[in-house]
Amino acid sequence: MSGEVQAAAVLGGLAESEQTESGRRPTGPVRPRRVGLGSWLLPAYTVIAFVFLLIPIAYTFVFSFNDSVKSNIAWRGFTFDKWLNVCNVEGGAVCEAFANSVIIGVVSTIIATTLGTMIAIALVRYRFRARSVISLLLFLPMATPEVVLGAGLAAQFLAVGVPKDMTTIILAHTMFCISFVVVTVKARVSSLDPALEEAGRDLYGSPAQVFWRVTFPLLTPGIVAAALLSFALSFDDFIITNFNSGSVSTFPKYVYISASRGIPAEANVIASAVFLFALVLVIGAQVSRAARVKRLAKLG
Amino acid sequence: MAFAAFATAEAQPQAPRKTSRIALLLLLPGILYLVLFFLTPLISLLLTSLQAPLEFGDIGQYQYAFNWQNYVDVMTAYWPHILRSFGYALAATVFALAFSYPLAYFIGVKARRWPLLQSLMLVLVIAPFFISFLLRTLAWKQILSDESFVITSLKALSLLGPDAHFTGTPFAVIFGLTYNFIPFMTLPLYTALERLDLRYLEAGSDLYAHPFTVFRKITIPLSMPGIVAGTLLTFIPAAGDYVNASRDFLGGPDTQMMGNVIEANFLVLLNYPAAAALSIILMAAILVLVGIYVKRSGTEDLL
Amino acid sequence: MAVREFAERGADLELVGIQKRFPGFTAIQDLDLKIPAGSFFALLGPSGCGKTTTLRLVAGLEEPTQGRILIGGKDVTATRSHERPVNTVFQSYALFPHMSIIENVAFGLKRRRIGDPLVKAHEALKLVELDHLAQRRPQQLSGGQQQRVALARAIVNRPALLLLDEPLGALDLKLRRQMQLELKTIQEEVGLTFLHVTHDQEEAMTMADTVAVMNKGAIEQMGAPEELYDLPKTAFVANFLGQSNLFAGEVAGATDTAITVDVGTARLIVPKARAHRHNGAVTVGVRPEKVSLHTERPVDSAERNVVGPGRVLDVSFSGVSTQYMVDVPGHGTILVFAQNTGSGPSVGVGDEVYTSWLVEHGFGLDDGAVEAQRFAPDDSTTSIAAQRRDDLVAELEEG
After folding, report:
1. Contact at 8 Å (CB) between B127 and A27?
2. What is the count of structural domains for chain B?
């Protein structure tokens, strides 16, 4: 595509804003087009849609400052107390559940990311006969409702006579995370130029050296993305956990159980803190990437 | 995100190079894991669904049998729940599609000129994921409870009848399902629309197609992979969900879905065969529906 | 409303005072252009000169900031793309990937509700000799075949005006020459008005009746290809359309028919009829193939300009001709193309030579004294480097 087509296509939609920008009235003919609903309807809709998506988040955040006594339903005044003394309620049950969720998330993410990355590399780089069967086996967990996954595992643990505890939760979470890891890492592996590995071998690298010095560093962004996704899925999972947790509490399970008698504001504090942490992390990554692109564009 | 992966599954691997023992070593642990913790559980689910109560046994004690009567029993007892599950999931999928398409179009097509804005809007789309799914749903319950500002105002304005409720109604459950699965719909739609080559739209317009016709004949068909992936990613979890329909969240006694009865049978009534039979029915129905849907929409290569 | 009838024949196109500004730059400044009905008109220029923007304005894909567009005398400035009796063969072809070839070709006819769209689409495919592939998908066709389908999809609508946006750019050289001839034949057959945008001067000259050379959003010169080549008006045209040896100097004297220009040590004569300026600082030039080499100083005469002596810097052989670069002190490098007919002198690198050309072959530009610099071709290292950087940035933004 020649440069001007690209520039024109990119700038095409700016035609109307450019007139106001230059402060000059067009002396050309009056153009009735693109002045209709279309020009502002979609942006306006987008704003409303985002407001809608963020309402419950804002609500949860605001009510983390509620000076509530037990249930956190009516607004009773502003306080920082809940943020400062998160673990003081109900003998620290919220914090214990949160800690469990983090441990489960970290452990199952490590296992799922390792196993999933290995599968992804094998799927892209090697030829073998059972490929379609394996692809199906990887696709099915993503297409199965969580309640079926949870009940299935619980039925198996019951049949084998395994007591439900933290281990069974980790086993369950690892299972449903693997497929997502494979999909994410696979995209990265297939976008990798095989010539890079060939160059590594050409420059006297042994297979192991080529893997650890060329392939792995290039795959890192994909692996990190997969691990973050895996952690997020595990951390927020309730349905599968509920079937396989026995008496162990996780954060979502704690919320579910206390829903009937009222959720303490401390739960809102933890959810809000996690939200803010994740948001800062993701936005920071996006902004720094945009800055890098801009810097590169300025070079030369 | 991986949800987009359904839409990008066509990323062709470069010609795989060789068969090797390394491939086996790489595959074996993960595949073995999935066989042990995904495949065999499905089989034990199937076996459980055919179990019969232990003679002189306690509640929750069963033995292996070929008691297909279990399926007849759950179908008779729970057919409204089964219908409700698929009805609610279908409604939520349609609403989520209607909600997400314009949003994804704006992010993926209109915002292309501003890459930073585009990625920030994507962050906003997935932002609900960063806060607990259950808390989000509870927030809606409280925002739209009978005593809430929204509902009382609507009643004061006579837009709602004095006895009207929101929570506990089928509408509330569908609303919750829609809200919770919107990101699953928006992301694959975005991936498809972001790759939409606008020159096809220009060509359509050059060939005398009205903007509406361009949308119908070119934009929609070209974004079909995203539509299929998004509807699947919304429909499947929505059909199996039991949080939104739960009485403590947005549901009521008359809104229970299959997930709720599976949970109740398994964890409360300890009627494992019934729960297992319902799970098998749910899974089979979804596989059949998905199969038909993917065939009809002509996007088999997605899987 | 969409145009419901076929155009009987091509219509003429008129652009009046067109200006197109994008935030930060002006793509087109004050363009006036009239293309007569039934002609094959080429808009030639380097990338970024505004030629594609002009085409998009005519197609209705962009709106002009100022000015009017008339097709067949009717003002279409305010109409949208789908309401204009204009079709485009896109550079990328833009064949709809989700439709078969025949559906692609019939698309426009169906939108206009013209009877028997499939019959007419098959006829158009027969014209481009691809009817046997009607049921295929665009992805299953080769680049040349896709190009022909794109052409069929446009001409099947019998537009008053057919726009061609570098339609041959993606094809290899041999196929390109073949398609050039085919396009020309089809244009003569269907009698439509063709507006062809290209950066390939050879393509423009072989195909078009009239060529307009565009630079920096304005038309530098317009005319028949031979005219433009023979008598370029500006240094840009002289070097974009073929190559030229240019000399900046001062008019020293004039007769009734010619001017004399002092350039360094030499005195060059240019016929008045071939010079756009007759006094002051001027730039004169001559095409390299009109220059001959001599090992001894040729006799000065009123019919011949002589520049030299100089030294041969480089000789490159290209089959039918040989290209010499001669460094003449005070004049820079003079380029000479000699036909390998066996009659010229045989010189090598380092030899001392004289250059000369017939007075009637020289030309005088409309520009004043310009730096006698050759136009940087697209394959120069700087433009390649710039392109690589743009690609990299685009890739990063995507990833």
Report:
1. no
2. 1
Q: Do the domain assignments include residue B152?
A: yes
- Asked whether residue C388 is domain-assigned, the answer is no
| DSSP letters spanning chain B | -GGGGGTTTT-PPP---B--HHHHHHHHHHHHHHIIIIIHHHHHHHHHHT-EEPTT--TT-EE----THHHHHHHHHHHHHHHHHHHHHHHHHHHHHHHHHHHHHHHHTGGGG-HHHHHHHHHHHHGGGGS-HHHHHHHHHHHTSTTSHHHHHHHHTTSS-TT--STTSHHHHHHHHHHHHHHHHHHHHHHHHHT--HHHHHHHHHTT--HHHHIIIIIHHHTHHHHHHHHHHHHHHHHH--STTSTTTT--GGG--HHHHHHIIIIIS--HHHHHHHHHHHHHHHHHHHHHHHHHTT-GGG-
Range of the structural domain that residue B141 is part of: 87-186+224-302
Which residues in chain B have their CB less than 8 angstroms from residue A97's CB?
A: none
Residue type, A101: S
Determine contact: C198 vs chain A, CB below 8 A.
Answer: no
Closest CA to B123 of A101, A228, A108: A228
Counting the structural domains of chain C, the total is 2
Predicted confidence (pLDDT) at residue A24 exceeds the cutoff of 50? no
pLDDT for residue A12 is more than 50: no
Judge residue A273's burial from the number of C-beta atoms within 10 Å of its C-beta, 0-12 exposed, 13-18 middle, 19 or more buried. Answer: middle
The pair of structure tokens assigned to C285 is 């030039």
- Helix/strand/coil for A8: helix
Closest residue in C to B221 (Cα–Cα): C98
Q: Identify the pLDDT of residue C7.
A: 58
Partners of chain B (3+ Cβ pairs below 8 A): A, C
Indicate which CATH number applies to the domain containing C308.
2.40.50.100
Specify the pLDDT at position A100. Answer: 94
Q: Are residues C74 and C182 in the same domain?
A: yes
- Does B119 sit within 8 Å of A290, measured CB to CB? yes
In a domain, B182, yes or no: yes
Q: Per-residue confidence at B53, pLDDT binned at 50, 70, 90? A: confident
Query: Is residue C392 in a domain?
Result: no
Whether residue A279 is contained in a domain is answered as yes
What the block records as the tokens of C307 is 């520049």
Domain region containing C284 = 243-364
Are residue C222 and residue C251 in the same domain, yes or no?
no
Q: How confident is the model at residue B18 (pLDDT cuts 50, 70, 90)?
A: low
pLDDT value, residue C392: 62
Is residue B288 included in any domain, yes or no? yes
The structure tokens 């120069």 sit at C380
Q: Give the range with max mean pLDDT: B200-209, C184-193, C252-261.
A: B200-209
For residue C152, being part of any structural domain is answered with yes
What's the structural domain count of chain A? 1
ipTM value for the complex: 0.86
Range of the domain at A163: 95-298
In a domain, A34, yes or no: no
Whether A131 contacts chain C with CB within 8 A = no
| Chain B nearest CA to C239, separation (Å) | 33
Q: Are residues C65 and C144 in the same domain?
A: yes
User: What CATH number has the domain bearing residue A241?
Assistant: 1.10.3720.10
Q: Which two tokens stand for residue C129?
A: 């000799």
In a domain, B119, yes or no: yes
Residue A59, H or E segment: helix A38-62
